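Request: Have a read of the protein record below and say how the chain folds.
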Amino acid sequence: MSDWKVGQIRFKGGYTPAPQAAPRPAAPPVRDAEADRRRLAEIQAAAQARDFPRAVALAEEAFKAGIIHPMVLNLAALKAEQDGRFDDALAVLQEAIALAPDDIGARNAMGLVLTRIERYAEALAVFDGVVKLQPGFAGAHCARGASLEAMGRLKEAEAAYRHARDLQPENLGALQGLANLLSRRGAHAEARPLAEAVLEAEPNFPDAVMVLAAADAAEGHGERAQRRLELLVGDDRLTPQQRALAQGQLGDVLDAQNLPAEAFQAYAACNMGLWRAYAPVHGEGVGALEFARAMLEELEAIPADAWAASPGSGAPAEGAPRAHVFLLGFPRSGTTLLEQVLASHPDVEALEERETLTEAQRAFLREPAGLGRLAIAGEAELQPLREAYWARVRAEGAEPAGKVFVDKHPLNTFRLPLILKLFPDAKILFARRDPRDVVLSCYRRRFAMSGSAYQLLTLPGAAGYYDAAMRLAERLEPAMAPRTLVVRHETLVDDFDAASREVCDFLGLGWTEAMRDFTAQARDRAVATPSGAQLSKGLSAEGVGAWRRYRDQLAPVMATLAPWAERYGYPAE
């Protein structure tokens, strides 16, 4: 806990590419066993004296000298991780595990390294193995929770954190993990004492400070929240990602105080920090925006009627849903609100932002040119991909049989060609919101990093990505229109009953008053998107027209957004 950059509680950090690893010198054919024993004893003595820098340095020297021992390998891996050589660290830990398969320390360390480089699914599998070997190890349960949280599986994450706390009540990772989850869903009064307990042990610990700042802001103490965050940003122990996220939260606090110019400066600092931190991963090669524009070029060469597939296929052989619905649009367009409203209906099974079209994307969207093959694909190619889709739906815990199944993912707009070909009977709900509010909100929010989220870190990138999504939908409108309902976010907020009844009619559902109580459903389902805390407050028009306060800052992208706003009927001012 004393070192935030490598400690057991890890804030979501970025990936630093490993430099080329220097080859380990080959072990000499004959070793001096007594000299090796002396070196191992010296390393062990340093570790027992808690002189970890010396123990790590000695272990690295021993490793380079060819000494293969679990203690040496573990410490050498730690040194590699501290140096940012994550590939080297993983390779050494794999060697340690091969040497001692039941070494809990090496396995747990591997999971932590995988978490550090955001390979969360692999990390979760490692931690699952650790708790199987040692069920009472609270640290591994806590690390499982962090991986699950990063993957958006918040209810499972909460269960893991609570189990870790039950095993070890003073485990700060478990306390902070629970505090984070409670804060994310707006339960600030419950989150506050947990964060305070963490800060008592680790003053100025980043996650805890941000939880308290969120609680202060929610309670109307904006200036106190601002002071907390400004002090945190100045702490030189923060990683670049931690500092960036604190600056983003500071932007929210300043925005709530009606200081848009100052808030925008904080958002810009946040986004540039993240942009630089993730550039090695998402800033090289073909970016998501470039890929989307290349898709548009390919679509121009394909007849529009190629996407009007014949109805009658797409449902699973067993456990068929009553109706199949894709809810999409663009991030921050109101998809999460609409999904939570629908999920409150007893006849609806909704799935929140899971990658269900993975196999189909691999088959046809590895490169934009795959669209041409998709347009003429026959049933022999498509049916296995449908089966893979439904297998993923079930693997994510959804039970669509007999229900109106809603697959919500705002970025599925970029996968519309797949949806139209694979699921000709599926209905589409297209969430729409004022484009200027959408792009501003995307710029202001902190998403789990991905190729798409990386595009949203600059205003030109966010506006360009929005433009590409809307152009793609417009190109496919002839095939989409007969089975699509556009749902305006502003209408849903302004006249909830009328808008929600229209959606129910479109989906063949009877309207129910339970849909008005969607906030309770949102709390129970543990919403993973940035909308989670907002949904806990119920319907709010707070974000409608928010772009007007930032019109000066949005000026560079208005030429891109204004035509869409006009086309969709939003007022110019």
Remarks:
- The beta strands are 323-328, 348-352, 404-408, 427-432, 484-488.
- The first strand starts at residue 323 and ends at 328.
- Residues 1-25 have pLDDT under 50 and may be disordered.
- The first helix runs from residue 33 to 48.
